[in-house]
Structures are given as C-alpha cells and as structure tokens.
C-alpha cells in the first residue's frame, strides 16, 4: 500500500478571479502538484473549488508530518519558484490567500488501513478559534459526540481534526465526503438539529469568513 495520509496538512485557501481559472488549474495539474509531490514527506495533494462558503479555491497537501515543510528539497522549491508559478500562483493572482500548516489531533492514531486512501471527492472544512476556557469541553464534545454522530451519516467517510502550527485560527476540522451534497441531506440536517455542543461547552467559538466551506475536488479530476 502506498501511504497517502500522514499527521500533517498544508492548506492554501485563495480567491481567484474566473479569468485566471484555466491557467491556474493547468498550473496546479501539470506543474505545481507534481513538483510538490517530489519533495520528501509530501504524500498526496488535490485542488478543490468551493460550492459553499470560501475562499473559492483550496489546495490540500497531505504531509507525513509538519516537518515536511522544513526539508532542504521543499525549501529550495519554495525559494526558487518557476516562471509559471510567478505568473499564476496564489500569491500572484490570489486574493485573501491563507496558507496554514496543521498537525493532527484527532484521531490520535490513524488507522493504518485507511492511510492509502486518495483525496476525497468532496470536503467540508471548518476553521475555528476557540477560547482557552472552553477548549477542553470543545475537544471532548467533538471527539466523543459530534464526530461519531456525523460518521453515521451516509456519505461521510472520515473526520480528522487539527491544530495549526503555522497560521490561524487554531483549530481545523476536515470532513471527507463521497460528494458535496452530503451536508444537504435529510440525515445530516437532522443530526445538526440535535447537536447540543453550544449548550455543553458553555461558550462560543468563532469561524473566519467563509467557514465552514464545502469543496468539490477538481484535481485530480472527478468522474462525476
């Protein structure tokens, strides 16, 4: 089995005007993703487009660990961008670009049997800032109530949670879906109505604009 999941993520969120879409997508598919996957510790990658929330584009890089960002090979790529990267990368044509690195906190140990799965057809990404006084209850509820409940919904494949080691906000939850309509289902909505997290934690956490966002995978291309 080729390992495609580790304990780290690099996430790049950006808004790109439609006039750049063709070149931006071609750059990711033909140059940028293959280049990054040649670096040690970069296990898999995909490009997603928002169908709900935002920013409009999300690039996801599965890392063996956050230490993949510190290798000589990766730093050389990052410090010596190609001409195509200079022309159409998210730091050039993107607006409101957010680039965060994360380490996995839940599940504490990933099931080895799931480590070979590829990039999910769709994702729901929640980015949350949680006040310190409610963090323990927030984590307890998420891991023992919310996540197990959501995994019972048809089409919800996996749930992983992360701490940011670079960037803000501190927490990120990644739901992996069979398709982007999962959070519109009757089952998902019923579970959401029964959720009592806010009552349990006794406080509020906040999302940045566009979070939670639902994203459809466009690279690698989907058959549906």
CATH fold-level topology? Alpha-Beta Plaits
Average pLDDT metric: 95
| Largest sheet composition | 8 strands, antiparallel, barrel
Number of strands: 8
Reading the helices and strands in chain order gives EHEEHHHEEHEEHHE
Short description:
The chain has 224 residues and is α+β, with helices and mostly antiparallel strands. The protein is built from seven helices and eight strands.
Topology:
Layout: E1 8-16, H1 21-37, E2 42-52, E3 57-63, H2 72-79, H3 83-88, H4 90-93, E4 94-106, E5 122-128, H5 135-150, E6 156-166, E7 171-177, H6 186-194, H7 197-201, E8 213-219
Antiparallel strand pairs: 1-3, 1-4, 2-3, 2-8, 4-6, 5-7, 5-8, 6-7
Question: Features of this protein?
Answer:
single chain; 224 residues; alpha+beta; Alpha-Beta Plaits; eight-stranded antiparallel β-barrel; globular
Can you put this structure into words, describing what you see?
With 224 residues, this protein is an alpha+beta fold. It has a single domain (8-219), classed as Alpha-Beta Plaits (2-Layer Sandwich). It is built from seven helices and eight strands. It has helices spanning 21-37, 72-79, 83-88, 90-93, 135-150, 186-194, 197-201, and strands at 8-16, 42-52, 57-63, 94-106, 122-128, 156-166, 171-177, 213-219. Strands 1-3-2-8-5-7-6-4 form an eight-stranded antiparallel barrel. A hairpin with a 4-residue loop joins strand 2 and strand 3. The longest helix has 17 residues, at 21-37. The chain starts with 7 loop residues before the first strand and ends in a 5-residue tail after the last strand.
């Amino acid at each position: 089995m080729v390992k495609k999941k580790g304990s780290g993520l690099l996430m790049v969120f950006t808004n790109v005007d439609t006039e750049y879409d063709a070149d931006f997508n071609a750059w990711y598919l033909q140059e940028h993703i293959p280049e990054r996957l040649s670096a040690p510790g970069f296990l898999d990658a995909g490009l997603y487009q928002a169908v709900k929330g935002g920013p409009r584009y999300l690039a996801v890089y599965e890392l063996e660990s956050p230490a993949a960002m510190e290798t000589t090979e990766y730093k050389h790529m990052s410090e010596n961008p190609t001409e195509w990267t200079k022309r159409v990368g998210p730091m050039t044509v993107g607006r409101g670009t957010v680039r965060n690195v994360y380490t996995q906190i839940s599940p504490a140990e990933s099931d080895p049997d799931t480590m070979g799965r590829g990039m999910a057809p769709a994702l729901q990404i929640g980015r949350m800032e949680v006040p310190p006084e409610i963090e323990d209850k927030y984590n307890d509820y998420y891991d023992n109530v919310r996540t197990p409940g959501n995994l019972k919904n048809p089409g919800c494949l996996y749930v992983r949670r992360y701490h940011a080691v670079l960037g803000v906000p501190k927490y990120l939850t990644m739901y992996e879906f069979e398709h982007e309509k999962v959070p519109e289902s009757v089952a998902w909505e019923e579970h959401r109505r029964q959720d009592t997290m806010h009552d349990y934690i006794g406080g509020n956490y906040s999302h940045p604009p566009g979070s939670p966002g639902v994203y459809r995978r466009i690279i690698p291309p989907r058959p549906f």
